[in-house]
Design brief:
The chain has 286 residues and is of the alpha/beta class. 42% of the residues lie in helices and 18% in strands. It contains 11 helices and 10 strands. The strands form 2 sheets. Strands 6-2-1-7-8-10-9 form a 7-stranded mixed sheet. Strands 3-5-4 form a 3-stranded antiparallel sheet. It is globular and about 60 Å long. The protein starts with 14 loop residues before the first helix and ends with a strand.
Length: 286
């Protein structure tokens, strides 16, 4: 894939090539206005590997013996991971009151009592753990006799390690209802809280690059996908590619949630748009 930026980055300084490499690897687009941000992040990794210039660092990423490991570390430097439990309550309300009853009716009618949900940019784990708690609360009523699986992925190994550990500050849990705090968390020394092992067992954490065709093709048979506040980092071409993967990987009738400031307008017209109080969701037509 050949990618070219025609911005104000100084010709020949290596910055453009580094931006292109990031784009080719994970589809994340950085405009010229983000140059200072990129320079500071590049500088950290350049110091770590002993590169003296952008050009030298670019050569290292292209030809170095541990280039794949270094590209992963660079991606971890440039991605941000701000999240919390029960962050987007309108979406979780829609999951409980609209989607789950529809799924139970449709899949139950054919005797397939299993749900598969993907948190596709899970960061430190707050979103998939929130989804698990919601489903567990339905386990003796609406989802009695059902099984469910939550796949939680991110491109950043550091945040995935924290997600697997499952220990959080009070700030991360600030929007969590008191009932859920008492039932699904265990107090830790120093005031932090650990997610219960009962919740952890439903979630499988993986490193997945949404721009990697070879990985995305294996994530089939999904009922619901959450991909919130990710599309804002992609350009139009990258968005179309990722959303098409989501469409292909969803079961017929499956649902997609994206961030409240994001839209599929001009990106994909195959999904059916549904409104709910406080937001919208997209459905793959039956």
């Amino acid at each position: 894939m050949e990618t070219t930026y025609h911005g104000t980055a100084r010709a020949g300084d290596g910055m453009s090539q580094l931006r292109d490499l990031i784009y080719e690897t994970c589809g994340i687009y950085f405009a010229d206005s983000k140059r200072y941000f990129l320079e500071s992040r590049f500088a950290r990794r350049m110091e770590a590997v002993g590169a003296k210039s952008f050009k030298e660092y670019h050569s290292y990423l292209r030809h170095g013996s541990d280039r794949q490991a270094e590209i992963q570390k660079l991606i971890e430097e440039i991605t941000t991971n701000e999240t919390s439990f029960f962050r987007n309550m309108p979406q979780f309300q829609a999951l409980q009151t609209l989607i789950l009853p529809r799924m139970v009716a449709a899949k139950g009618a054919i005797g397939f009592k299993r749900l598969k949900i993907w948190s596709s940019a899970c960061s430190t784990g707050e979103e998939p753990y929130t989804i698990a708690m919601i489903l567990m609360e339905k386990a003796t009523t609406l989802l009695a006799g059902w099984g469910f699986e939550i796949i939680a992925t991110d491109i950043n190994d550091q945040v995935l390690a924290r997600a697997r550990e499952g220990i959080y500050s009070e700030y991360a849990i600030r929007a969590t209802p008191e009932y859920h705090k008492k039932k699904y968390f265990v107090a830790q020394p120093g005031g932090s809280l650990a997610i219960s092992p009962d919740v952890k067992k439903y979630i499988k954490f993986q490193n997945v690059n949404l721009y990697d065709d070879s990985r995305m093709v294996f994530l089939k048979g999904l009922d619901i996908i959450f991909c919130c506040n990710v599309l804002i980092y992609f350009d139009q071409t990258s968005k179309k590619k990722v959303i098409q993967h989501f469409y292909n990987n969803l079961n017929r009738g499956g649902y997609l949630f994206i961030g409240h400031s994001e839209s599929l307008f001009g990106i994909n017209d195959e999904f059916k748009l549904h409104h709910f109080p406080g937001g919208v969701m997209y459905q793959k037509p039956l």
